[in-house]
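Support case: user asked for a sample of complex input and structure output to validate their parser. Sending the pair below.
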Amino acid sequence: MAAAGSAVGLGNVWGFPTQAASNGGAVFLFVYLAMVFVLALPMLISELTIGRYGQGNPVRALNKIVSNRSAAVIMGVMALTAAALILSFYSIIAGWLMGFFASPALDMVGLTGASTWLESFGLGRNLFLTLLFMLLTMHVVRKGVTDGIERWSSRLMPVLIVLFILLIIYIFTQEGALEGLKLYLVPDFSYFNADLVVNAMGQAFFSLSLGVAVMMVYGSYLPKDANIPKTATQVALIDTAIAFGAGLLILPAMFVARNNGVEIYSDAGTLLNSDTLVFTVLPAMFDTMGAVGPLISMVFFALMIIAALTSSISLLEVPVSCAIEELKISRNKAVLTIGIAVSLIAILIIFNFGALFGLVVNVATVYMQPLLGLLWAIVTGWLWSRATVLEEIRNGFDDVEQTLFWRIWPNYLRFVCPVLMGLVFAATI
Ligand code: TRP
């Protein structure tokens, strides 16, 4: 559940629909599904296995496998840098969610000025909300109350799913929704190109929280009787179902919004300001709901903030756990220094939003995450003795040696994953 909580977040509700909408809908959906199950899932199994074998922070786990401390430190630091970069832009988007959560309440008490400020793109608002979200994340990680958060999120996840289903039903009663559904499910292959494939790969790695050692840390928390391939498959299925559901809501909602006068495409036919589009479309949908609209909107955004928080704490927990164990500093100090460093990166992005936001998202998710994921696949496939891998996976999966999975997976990590990824990158170059 914790790994699923890390996986399900803004990547599902903001990232996936945004990417699908700007990459031709159905074609993106299909390539994405292929990426999740053909490339990302085998790598998720590898990351979880490394983590559970290591029984500690990623640097220690990697050191145990490669028996070379400098190599383990270098690999760990690369993963932590990626985690910090991701957290910095993640907190900006999560901040927007907090703005949309508070704004209907402010409207109701007559503070329309503040409400509009929270909903409109601007420097002050972005700074304020981002830092607020970072403080919230730091607070949770400092208290080490992840237990409570996980318990809450496993309770609230079903609520989120039910709300999604109700909203999907609602949106299909509205004019224009079918046009969005058609875009989402009927492929138009003229959209297919190399960039789309790379973006789908990045999105799959982002959504499953791969590459940056989050899943290693969560793997180290897994009990020895947990079946890792099965757990990983469950996480991938939950995550994919929620991303699919978000697309089923948001793409139709875009066209309903357009029917109600919200501009979603520019004259050139490209999506308008696609980073923030999801956040324009959702309030437009809640506006059509009459008196219950503000209430449903608040419930929706509250659930989203919690989903974002279970992801952001996983991102902060990785560097913090390394710092505590490897540098022997206190949790408080680790959270404070790393939290401030990440906030500074976020502030830098906010001041140069046009130039940096998309760039950081791209560098971290399209390049760093897949390449780091590949590194773990290579560590597992080439540097780790096959017998030890087998021994680790056998915990919780007694007869794994006799399965088709075991006959394919180790060589799959060795040969197929690097070749597939190489092809994807070669195509864009
Ligand atoms: N997967 C989360 C989402 O979809 C975000 C996230 C949490 C993440 N931890 C991560 C992304 C580690 C990349 C790496 O919103």
